[in-house]
Design goal:
Radius of gyration: 13 Å
Number of strands: 10
Strand order of the largest sheet: 1-5-4-2-3
Strand content: over 45%
Oligomer: single chain
Distance between the termini: 25 Å
Shape: globular
Largest sheet: 5 strands, antiparallel
Helix content: under 10%
Structural class: mainly beta
Order of helices and strands: EEEEEEEEEE
């Protein structure tokens, strides 16, 4: 038997999809309330899970797998912000604390609780 965090308190909100949005990327909202890719070194509200017909599903709670850049985040409560190329990265300031429960250095992914 393996451990699974999928489905834990999963919360998804539908937004209009802004330019450049991609599945798996950290999301913020623009001045029109559209979901857009979060810019580098910024806080993000969630992770884009789907895009269809101009609408985006954004996961704002629960367990999510994200790509990371720079260095692998530490297990436990870790401050993250957006990194390069629609990833997240560990930071020491100007981020948001998330619970990191899984780190895959081979695939450069981390499992976080939003």
């Amino acid at each position: 038997m393996s451990i699974s965090f999928n489905g834990y308190e999963k919360s998804i909100i539908t937004f209009e999809a802004g330019d450049g949005l991609a599945v798996g990327c950290p999301v913020t909202l623009n001045s029109n309330g559209e979901a857009v890719p979060a810019s580098a070194n910024s806080k993000f509200i969630g992770i884009c899970t789907a895009i269809r017909n101009g609408w985006a599903s954004v996961q704002t709670g629960g367990y999510a797998t994200v790509k990371y850049s720079d260095s692998a985040p530490s297990y436990g409560v870790t401050m993250l912000a957006t990194g390069a190329n629609k990833t997240v990265k560990p930071v020491s300031e100007n981020g948001i604390y998330y619970k990191v429960v899984k780190v895959d250095t081979t695939n450069t992914t981390a499992g976080i609780i939003l």
